[in-house]
Design a protein that fits this description.
GO terms for molecular function: actin binding; ATP binding; microfilament motor activity; protein serine/threonine kinase activity. By secondary structure, the chain is an alpha+beta fold. Among the domains are: 187 residues, Orthogonal Bundle (Transferase(Phosphotransferase), domain 1), CATH 1.10.510.10; 107 residues, Myosin VI head, motor domain, U50 subdomain (Four Helix Bundle (Hemerythrin (Met), subunit A), Up-down Bundle), CATH 1.20.120.720; 113 residues, Methane Monooxygenase Hydroxylase, Chain G, domain 1. It has 28 helices and 21 strands. Strands 9-18-12-13 form a four-stranded mixed beta sheet.
Length: 743
C-alpha cells in the first residue's frame, strides 16, 4: 500500500495501528489520508511538521523549529517501524509519556527496539532496525524494504496467511473482545488537527470542528457554554474566554492538577490548558513561548494573565516557595499603580504589560521580568466624568487614615485633594472609610514586603504619592505687573510647603520653578514669569512626571528583586514564557491621544491574529497542495501603514509637528488632512480639532486637543534640576536615571 502511494507521489504521514484495518476476509487496508502530502515529483520533499507524535520521524519533528529542515517519503518507513513495534509490544515506544514530551525525546533518543527482542525472529528485529535508521538519507525506501528477508519469506504463502488472519478474526469476534482502540490526536505545526466535522446542533469544545462556522453559530455555541458556566471555548489553538462577572469554582488546586501534562481533549477548555501547552512546548522544543491576550476593555484580560502566572508557577515548581510567592504578588502590585476605574471597567489596565517568566532548560521557574508601556499619566491630573484616578491613591488614603498617618504624609482629612475630586468622592470620608480600599492597602503593603522592598523604600513611595496629591492642591493667582507682564503667584503656600517637605526640597525654590522659567539667549540667562495657565501646566507636568517615573522605578525594582539567581539557573541562558496583557480597544464619547495609542497597539495585535489565523494557514494550504476555498478577511495592513510608515505616516507627522515650537493642535490636524490620503482617515468638520479613523473594530472620532503636549511630554529643566537636589534618595533617582521599557 505504501509503495503504491509513494509511486503516485504521495506521502501518507500518519502510519500507525489505528490506520491499518483488517477485513473479515483477511484483507489488509491502509486508511486515513487526512494529512497526506501530494508531491509533484517522487524526489520532492516537505517541511511541514505533521503526524501523530509517537509515530513521527525525527526529521518531521525537526521541521517544527528548524525552518531549513525537510523530509521525503522515507518518513513513512520510520512510522512503519514504530507500527511494527506497536504490533509486537501492544504500544508504540514512549506511550507512557505526554505526547509533547515524546516529541522532545524521539530526536534525542537512540532508535527504539522491541521490549523483548529475543521473543521475535532475527528477520523481524532487523526489519525494524532498518525502518528506524535515524539518518533518513541512509534509511531504506519502502521499495527497498519490500526486498527485505522478513518480507521476502512470505512469498507464495499469501493464501495461507490470509486464512490464518480470517481464523484469528473469527476467534477474536467469538470471544467478544471489545477493547477500545486508543485515540491518538494528530499533531500539526500550529496545534492539533481534527479530522471530523460535527453538526452545528452539537455542543463542542473546539469551534474549529463545526461543519459551518459563522457569526451566528459562534454566538450560539458560546451562549450554550456560558449558560452552563463553561466560559472557555477553543478555536483551534486559540482560547476564547467569556467574562462571567462572578466567581466560578474552576480554579482550585484540584483543577490546576487536572490540567498538568494532560491531553487537551482530556478536559474541558481552560486557561490552565493554555499555560500547560505553553510550558510543555517550551520544555519540549527548548524554545521561548509567548501568550498573547487580546479583547475589549472589561473582557477579563487582566484576570486571565493572573491565572496564567498562577498555573505557570505551579508547573515551574520553584526551588523555594519564596520566589513563587514573589512572582504571584507582582501582578497585584503593578495593577494597583497601573489600573483605574473607567466608565465600563472598575479595574481597567491603563498601561501595557509584558511579563516574562524565566525558566531553566529543565523547566524550573527561576525569576521574572516586566516591561511596561504607555502608562496613561494624564489620568493623574484629570479624569473624565464618571472615572477615577489610579487605584493606589485611594488605597493609601484609606490605609494611612486607618493607621492615623494622614498628618504625617500631610494629606487633608476633610476636603479631597484636587486630583481625587470627582463625582465618586466629594468628601474624604468617602474613601477613608472604604473597607475595600483598606483591605487593598494591606494587600499592597504585603506585596511590597514579599517581593523584597525595604521599609525605607516603602515610606519613600508613600511620600512621593502624597507629594503628587499636594502638588495638585497648589493654586495660582494672577499678579498685576507695572510692566503689564502676566505673572502668577501661589495663593495657598501651605500646599507648597507640604509638597516641598515630602520631596525634601526647598519650598522657595519650588515656588520659583513653578512660577517662572529660564531662557538662555546669546549666552545670557533671562528669568521670565509664568502666567497662571503656564504655571498650572508646569504643576501638572511635574505631577505626571513624578508618577510616571515612580511607576517605572517600581517596575525596575521588581525586575532587580526577581532577577534569576545564577546559582539556581546555572550557566545556561534559560528559557522564557512571555504573557502580553495590553489594554483593549477603546471608543469613548471623547477620545484623545491615549485612546489613539491604545487603538494603534490593538491594530497591531489584530494584524498578528489575522496573519496567524488566515494568512499563514492559507500559505500552508497552498504549499501542501490542499484545494481549499480561499477565506476572505479584512487585512488591516494598509491602516497600519497609514499609522506607522515613514516619513508620511500619522505618527511620523505627529513627531514632526511636535518639533516646531509654534505648532498648535489645529496645525497638527490640518497636517493630517493634507498628508493622509487614505480611506481610513476622515475629518468631519474643518473648524474644530476632531478627526476620525476607520479601525478594524469600528470608526472612532478623536479630539486632537492636547496631542502635541502629550506627545512632547516635556518636564521643565528647572523642575528636573530642583528634584535632583532633593535630600531624599528616591526623589533624586526618579529624575537622575534614564528610563527604559523595563523601568
Amino acid at each position: 500500500g505504501l509503495q503504491h502511494l509513494h509511486e503516485n507521489k504521495t506521502i501518507h504521514r500518519d502510519i500507525k495501528g489505528n490506520n491499518i484495518l483488517l477485513t473479515t476476509e483477511g484483507g489488509v487496508k491502509l486508511v486515513d489520508f487526512g494529512v497526506s502530502a501530494q508531491l509533484t515529483s517522487t524526489r520532492l520533499r516537505r517541511n511541514t511538521s505533521v503526524g501523530t507524535p509517537f509515530w513521527m520521524a525525527p526529521e518531521v519533528i525537526a521541521c517544527e523549529q528548524q525552518l531549513d529542515s525537510s523530509y521525503d517519503a522515507r518518513c513513512d518507513a520510520w512510522s512503519l517501524g514504530i507500527t511494527a513495534i506497536e504490533l509486537g509490544d501492544g504500544d508504540p515506544p514512549l506511550a507512557d509519556l505526554h505526547p509533547m514530551r515524546a516529541l522532545f525525546k524521539i530526536p534525542r533518543n537512540p532508535p527504539p527496539t522491541l521490549q523483548q527482542p529475543e521473543l521475535w525472529s532475527p528477520e523481524f528485529n532487523d526489519f525494524i532496525n532498518k525502518c528506524l535508521t535515524k539518518d533518513y538519507e541512509k534509511r531504506p525506501t519502502v521499495s527497498s524494504l519490500l526486498q527485505h528477508d522478513f518480507i521476502k519469506q512470505i512469498e507464495g504463502k499469501e493464501n495461507v496467511l490470509q486464512r490464518q488472519l480470517m481464523e484469528f478474526i473469527d476467534v477474536h469476534q467469538q470471544m467478544g473482545v471489545t477493547e477500545k482502540a486508543r485515540f491518538e490526536r494528530i499533531h500539526t505545526k500550529k496545534g492539533n488537527y481534527s479530522k471530523s466535522l460535527v453538526s452545528n446542533q452539537e455542543e463542542v469544545d473546539d469551534l474549529a470542528t463545526l461543519e459551518v462556522l459563522d457569526e451566528n453559530t459562534v454566538t450560539e455555541q458560546l451562549q450554550k457554554g456560558y449558560a452552563k458556566d463553561q466560559i472557555y471555548t477553543y478555536v483551534g489553538d486559540i482560547l476564547i474566554a467569556v467574562n462571567p462577572f462572578r466567581n466560578i469554582d474552576i480554579y482550585s488546586s484540584q483543577h490546576s492538577k487536572r490540567y498538568i501534562g494532560a491531553e487537551r481533549t482530556a478536559n474541558p477548555p481552560h486557561i490552565f490548558a493554555v499555560a500547560d501547552i505553553g510550558y510543555q512546548s517550551m520544555v519540549t522544543y527548548n524554545s521561548d513561548q509567548c501568550i498573547v491576550i487580546s479583547g475589549e476593555s472589561g473582557a477579563g484580560k487582566t484576570q486571565s494573565a493572573h491565572l496564567l502566572v498562577q498555573q505557570l508557577t505551579v508547573l515551574g515548581k520553584a526551588n523555594n516557595r519564596t520566589l513563587q510567592e514573589k512572582i504571584l504578588q507582582v501582578n497585584n502590585l503593578v495593577e494597583a499603580f497601573g489600573n483605574a476605574g473607567t466608565i465600563i471597567n472598575d479595574n481597567s489596565s491603563r498601561f501595557g504589560k509584558y511579563l516574562e517568566m524565566k525558566f531553566t532548560c529543565g523547566g524550573t521557574v527561576v525569576g521574572a521580568q516586566i516591561s511596561e508601556y504607555l502608562l496613561e499619566k494624564s489620568r493623574v491630573v484629570h479624569q473624565a466624568v464618571g472615572e477615577k484616578n489610579f487605584h493606589i491613591f485611594y488605597y493609601i488614603y484609606a490605609g494611612l487614615a486607618e493607621k492615623k498617618k494622614l498628618a504625617h504624609y500631610k494629606l487633608p482629612e476633610y476636603r479631597p485633594p484636587r486630583y481625587l475630586q470627582n463625582d465618586h468622592f466629594r468628601i474624604v470620608q468617602d474613601f477613608m472609610n472604604n473597607s475595600f480600599y483598606k483591605s487593598q492597602f494591606e494587600l499592597i503593603e504585603q506585596c511590597f514586603k514579599v517581593i523584597g522592598f525595604t521599609l525605607e523604600e516603602l515610606g519613600s513611595v508613600y511620600s512621593v504619592l502624597a507629594a503628587i496629591l499636594n502638588v495638585g492642591n497648589i493654586e495660582f493667582s494672577a499678579v498685576v505687573s507695572e510692566h503689564m507682564v502676566d505673572k502668577s503667584n501661589i495663593s495657598n503656600p501651605v500646599a507648597l510647603e507640604n509638597c516641598a517637605s515630602l520631596l525634601c526640597i526647598q519650598a522657595d525654590e519650588l515656588q520659583e520653578a513653578l512660577t517662572s522659567h529660564c531662557v538662555v539667549t546669546r549666552g545670557e540667562t533671562i528669568i521670565r514669569p509664568n502666567t497662571v495657565e503656564k504655571a498650572t501646566d508646569v504643576r501638572d507636568a511635574m505631577a505626571k512626571a513624578l508618577y510616571g517615573r515612580l511607576f517605572s522605578w517600581i517596575v525596575n525594582r521588581i525586575n532587580t528583586l526577581l532577577k534569576p539567581d545564577k546559582h539556581l539557573s546555572g550557566n545556561d541562558d534559560g528559557l522564557n514564557i512571555g504573557i502580553l496583557d495590553i489594554f483593549g480597544f477603546e471608543n469613548f464619547k471623547k477620545n484623545s491621544f491615549e485612546q489613539l495609542c491604545i487603538n494603534i497597539a490593538n491594530e497591531q495585535i489584530q494584524f498578528y491574529f489575522n496573519q496567524h489565523v488566515f494568512a499563514w494557514e492559507q500559505n500552508e494550504y497552498l504549499y501542501e497542495g490542499v484545494d481549499a476555498r480561499v477565506i476572505e478577511y479584512e487585512d488591516n495592513r494598509p491602516l497600519l501603514d497609514m499609522f506607522l510608515q515613514k516619513p508620511m505616516g500619522l505618527l511620523s507627522l505627529l513627531d514632526e509637528e511636535s518639533r516646531f515650537p509654534q505648532a498648535t493642535d489645529q496645525t497638527l490636524v490640518e497636517k493630517f488632512e493634507d498628508n493622509l490620503k487614505s480611506k481610513y482617515f476622515w475629518r468631519p468638520k474643518r473648524v474644530d480639532l476632531t478627526f476620525g479613523i476607520y479601525h478594524y473594530a469600528g470608526k472612532v472620532l478623536y479630539n486632537a486637543s492636547g496631542f502635541l503636549a502629550k506627545n512632547r511630554d516635556t518636564l521643565p529643566a528647572d523642575i528636573v534640576l530642583l528634584l535632583r537636589s532633593s535630600e531624599n534618595n528616591l526623589t533624586r533617582q526618579l529624575v537622575t536615571h534614564p528610563l527604559t521599557k523595563t523601568g
